[in-house]
Structure formats: structure tokens, C-alpha cells
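Thought: the user asked what YHYH domain-containing protein looks like in 3D. I have the sequence; next I should run the structure tool and report back without guessing.
Action: structure_tool
Action Input:
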Amino acid sequence: MHQTIATFSAVLLLTGLGLVTAQGNGGPGGGAGMMGRTAGNNTNPLCGTTANAPSVNHTIQGGVRYFQSNGCPPTNWTDHNYPAPNGMTYGQARSYNFPVIVNQTPVLQANISDALYVGISNPVKGPIGITLTGVALYSAVDALNRDAIIYEGRTFDTCGGHSTPDPVNTYHYHSMPGDSSTISHNGTRNSNFTYCPAMQSWLLPVNTTNNHSALFGVFVDGVPIYGPLGDGGKLPTDLDACNGHVDASHSFYHYHATSDYPYLVDCLRGCINSTLSYIQGATIPACKPAAQQYNYSSLDAEITARLEHVGVINGTMVNGTVVNGTMVLL
Ligand SMILES: *[C@@H]1O[C@H](CO)[C@@H](O)[C@H](O)[C@H]1NC(C)=O
Ligand SMILES: *[C@@H]1O[C@H](CO)[C@@H](O)[C@H](O)[C@H]1NC(C)=O
Ligand SMILES: *[C@@H]1O[C@H](CO)[C@@H](O)[C@H](O)[C@H]1NC(C)=O
Ligand SMILES: *[C@@H]1O[C@H](CO)[C@@H](O)[C@H](O)[C@H]1NC(C)=O
Ligand SMILES: *[C@@H]1O[C@H](CO)[C@@H](O)[C@H](O)[C@H]1NC(C)=O
Ligand SMILES: *[C@@H]1O[C@H](CO)[C@@H](O)[C@H](O)[C@H]1NC(C)=O
Ligand SMILES: *[C@@H]1O[C@H](CO)[C@@H](O)[C@H](O)[C@H]1NC(C)=O
Ligand SMILES: *[C@@H]1O[C@H](CO)[C@@H](O)[C@H](O)[C@H]1NC(C)=O
Ligand SMILES: *[C@@H]1O[C@H](CO)[C@@H](O)[C@H](O)[C@H]1NC(C)=O
Ligand SMILES: *[C@@H]1O[C@H](CO)[C@@H](O)[C@H](O)[C@H]1NC(C)=O
Ligand SMILES: *[C@@H]1O[C@H](CO)[C@@H](O)[C@H](O)[C@H]1NC(C)=O
Ligand SMILES: *[C@@H]1O[C@H](CO)[C@@H](O)[C@H](O)[C@H]1NC(C)=O
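Observation:
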């Protein structure tokens, strides 16, 4: 038993070293005085364990969408079911400066083979996206490039996340946020998700009857991700290799979380603007955009609506979009 735990700690120790960060001045909220990730022992403040632990700002300026977060989950991250090995500050979630900066309008690659693969076929570690509550989204791989749910899933807390041990302490999801029993899916594709009570209202659509799942995050290609259900509240049957598709109620390319691999995304279909966000260890594919692109004009309002749904925004509404808003989760 102890041997097994030690193996897990070694694996987890390596998973959090990638980061998404602004190049240059970091955009709104990214100036001097922000907490950075530190090498060695992380002395950043521990995250709170209640719903108001996150601080997330969402801003749109000049065609660029900024998320700026302290990386903390809106739930009790100490509520995990794995023991701390002796001498390790294991599984502590600490705040850090977490910006995700993308072009406001995603631009899709013409050919899916030009997408950035992030899963087992081309492992990318560290943050590749952000939830609307400001938590990092990771790919499906662990430090040894294996299925992170199979090999680490039992370390997830009851809201489906975990944090990398000291020194990085990045709280993150490899699969559907809030899923209180990720491993219960046993590698099958189904809609039997049980969300932790603290996150239910943030993850479910306002009207849950036969409805498409709600938007819960955005990846570094600017493409949003929704919960597991597509049109009519049914599981999508036409997801591509990245885990994305277009459906009737959301007529632009978007991702869905799934109960089986890749859980979130296996590749990022949109072009990644590496001058805005950096993904450690990834070679960003050149952008060879499709001639026909999707109309994402409703996305700002949808993100704003979901942000308002999960918390409180004090910002200025410009054409239906919150600009310079600060979200404080209730
Ligand atoms: C972290 O702190 C522990 C306990 O103070 C110490 O033993 C260890 O050497 C430190 N590690 C680093 C990388 O500074
Ligand atoms: C969000 O913006 C507010 C007001 O500008 C600022 O005080 C806060 O530090 C920002 N939060 C983050 C995580 O950047
Ligand atoms: C968080 O979870 C831990 C472990 O279950 C518990 O001891 C603690 O009281 C919880 N904290 C809050 C604020 O609910
Ligand atoms: C997409 O890329 C693959 C691999 O490079 C190539 O074989 C295929 O012909 C391309 N498809 C199109 C439609 O360009
Ligand atoms: C899922 O896996 C667990 C652990 O191996 C097992 O106990 C359980 O019976 C499985 N459930 C299903 C529905 O296969
Ligand atoms: C759904 O998942 C829960 C655990 O999250 C499990 O107890 C239940 O048996 C599952 N139901 C089905 C039909 O698989
Ligand atoms: C759910 O259904 C209602 C009514 O059809 C619709 O207005 C709403 O946008 C749907 N989606 C969500 C996420 O609530
Ligand atoms: C909820 O959404 C479903 C599917 O979109 C729709 O049929 C139903 O009328 C909606 N209910 C309400 C109260 O809006
Ligand atoms: C990246 O974003 C910047 C800022 O919006 C923009 O000027 C630049 O054209 C973008 N580059 C690509 C390749 O889209
Ligand atoms: C948001 O606005 C309300 C009402 O004006 C105010 O009480 C609250 O302090 C503001 N919160 C932030 C984080 O600015
Ligand atoms: C708001 O929308 C109008 C009409 O589409 C446009 O002319 C105007 O420039 C927009 N304002 C801003 C600040 O984006
Ligand atoms: C948002 O903040 C920027 C930079 O501080 C400022 O130039 C801009 O006017 C603000 N926009 C609104 C709508 O408040």
C-alpha cells in the first residue's frame, strides 16, 4: 500500500510544471505584484476551501479575451480521499497568477491533423485551458504519459480535481469538473455524472430539461467546452478526434467533456496564438485556417451569462459583453 502511494507521489510531482502565461506585459491584472509560480518550495498562499476562494477576471479588449485567475477552486480541495505520504506537502492547492489569453474569435484549422494534439499520442502537460471559475484544465495524461484518470483518478477530490504536490501546487481538472466519481465511469461513455453539490448550480444549464450542457471553460485555442450532453440532452455521437463538433443549438465548433478518454480534449482544433498564451513543452502547429469559419458572435454573451450564473461580475457592459469585470464567486 505504501509502495503504491509513493509511486503516485512521484508521478504527481512532475505533472504541474507546464503553464499558460502571458508573454510580454501579461495584459490586464498581470502587472507587478501578482503572485507568480515559484521554483522550489511554493510559499504562495494556500487557496481557501469555500466558494469565494477563486478570483477570476474576464476581460475583452481589442479582439483579445483575457481570463486572469488566482487558480483556486471554488470547492473544498482538502476533501480528497488519498493520504499524504510522510514529509510531503501533498495535494495542497495554492494560489498563483494564472492568465489565459486568447483571440476573441477562434480560428479553426482546416485539417484536424494540424490541430495541437495534447493526449497520449502527443502528451502535453500543464494548463491548456481554464474553467469559468478560474481553475486550470489539463489534458488526459499524467506525468508518465498515461491515462491520468486511470492512474491518478483515485486522488481526485469529490469535485473531480486535484492539485500537484509541492512545489507547484496547481489545482486542476483532467476530466469533467465537479464529477464526484470520475473513475466510476469505468472507461465507458455514458451520461451518469454525479456532480458535487457545491458545483451543481454552476455546471448545470438553467433549464435542465432535455438541454445541451452548459459552457464551463475555454481552451487556449479560444474554443469553449461544455458538459457531456449535446442537443436535446443526449450524448453527442459525432465528436471528432479532438472531442469537438457543431450542433443545432450551438452552431459553432465546440468541445464536450466525456466520461471516457479523452475526458476533455485530445487535441485543440483552433489555431493557438502563441504570442498570447504559452503552453510549456508544446510545439504550436502553424495556422492553416479553414476557408469557412464559424460565427462565434454569440460566444461573448454566452460566457458572460455563465459568468453571471456562477458568481458576481462588476464590470461595464459593452454590447452585451462584460468588460473589465471582476467575478467574485458567491
Ligand atoms: C522545501 O522545504 C523542505 C522543508 O523545509 C526542505 O527540506 C526542502 O529542502 C525544500 N526544498 C526546496 C527545493 O527548497
Ligand atoms: C481582478 O481585477 C480586480 C480589479 O481590477 C483586481 O483587484 C484583482 O486582483 C484581479 N484578480 C485577478 C486574479 O487578477
Ligand atoms: C473541508 O474538508 C475537510 C476534510 O473533509 C473538512 O475537515 C473541513 O471541515 C472542510 N472545510 C470546509 C470549509 O468545509
Ligand atoms: C490532412 O492532413 C493529412 C496528413 O497531413 C493529409 O493526408 C490529408 O490529405 C489532409 N486532408 C486534407 C483535406 O487536406
Ligand atoms: C467499475 O469498476 C469498479 C472497480 O474496478 C468495480 O468495482 C465496479 O463494479 C465497476 N462498475 C461497473 C458498472 O462496471
Ligand atoms: C452512476 O454512477 C454512480 C456513482 O457515481 C453509481 O453509484 C451508479 O450505480 C451509476 N449508475 C449507473 C446506471 O451506472
Ligand atoms: C436550456 O433551455 C432553455 C430553454 O429552451 C434555453 O433558453 C437555454 O439557453 C438552454 N441552455 C442552457 C445552458 O440553459
Ligand atoms: C427547457 O428546455 C427544453 C429543451 O430546450 C424545452 O423543451 C422546455 O420548454 C424548456 N423549459 C422551460 C421552462 O423553459
Ligand atoms: C495573435 O494575437 C495578436 C493580438 O490580438 C494579433 O495581433 C496577432 O495577429 C495574432 N496572431 C495570430 C497568428 O493570429
Ligand atoms: C461589486 O459591486 C457591489 C455593488 O456595487 C459591491 O458591493 C462589491 O463590493 C463589488 N465587488 C467588487 C469585487 O468590486
Ligand atoms: C457595439 O456594436 C456596434 C454595432 O455592432 C458597433 O458599431 C460598436 O463599435 C460596438 N462597440 C464596441 C465598443 O465594441
Ligand atoms: C477597460 O480597461 C481599460 C484599461 O484600463 C480601459 O482603457 C477601458 O476604457 C476600460 N473599458 C471599460 C468599458 O471600462
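Thought: the tool returned a structure. Summarizing for the user.
Final Answer: Structure for YHYH domain-containing protein predicted. Residues 1-330 form one domain. Helices lie at 2-13, 148-152, 197-203, 299-310.
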